[in-house]
Design a protein that fits this description.
By secondary structure, the chain is of the alpha+beta class. The chain contains 2 helices and 7 strands. β1 and β2 (about 75-80) form a beta hairpin. It is elongated.
Length: about 160
């Protein structure tokens, strides 16, 4: 024998459903606020001035970084060239290769300068990768670039 669905039942179902949604939203909001790291910089004006100065110095270098991942050789090749297309040998080179969404698979390959290119042994799984290049010119000018790289996967879009 089926019980009759009354207005009180419908009200209880509605309150329970919306109560669950609100409770989950509150938990998620508290978790998000609790894990937010806070300010990135103490003074955004000073940071913007430094950014503009560093960007101008980097642009003046005129460098172009071109990655080439050779899956068969399991090697990443970075070609750094100046405005004239000549290879550039940097003072310091630091490269971090990782997924765009997490740091679990971040890699820090050791590059060596060979025949005008930087080469590092590297085995990449298929998919989307970010290559973060940090280098210093002979005069100490900092150079930073993030390069989006797709390996073994169809480029989305």
């Amino acid at each position: 024998m089926a019980r009759e669905l009354t207005g009180k039942h419908v009200l209880a179902i509605t309150v329970a459903a919306f109560g669950t949604i609100i409770a989950v939203n509150l938990v998620m909001a508290f978790k998000a606020v609790g894990t937010f790291p806070g300010l990135e910089v103490a003074n955004s004006y000073v940071a913007s001035q430094n950014f503009d100065r560093e960007r101008a110095a980097q642009t003046a270098l005129g460098w172009t970084v071109t990655p080439d991942y050779q899956a068969g050789a399991q090697e990443l090749v970075l070609t750094i060239t100046d405005r004239q297309g000549n290879p550039v040998q940097v003072r310091d080179l630091d490269v971090v290769i990782g997924r765009p969404t997490h740091v679990r698979q971040d890699l820090h390959p050791e590059f060596r300068f060979v025949d005008g290119t930087y080469r590092a042994p590297l085995a990449l799984e298929p998919g989307r990768w970010n290559i973060h290049v940090t280098a210093k010119a002979a005069d100490g000018t900092a150079f930073r670039q993030r390069i989006d790289h797709y390996h073994g996967a169809r480029v989305p879009g």
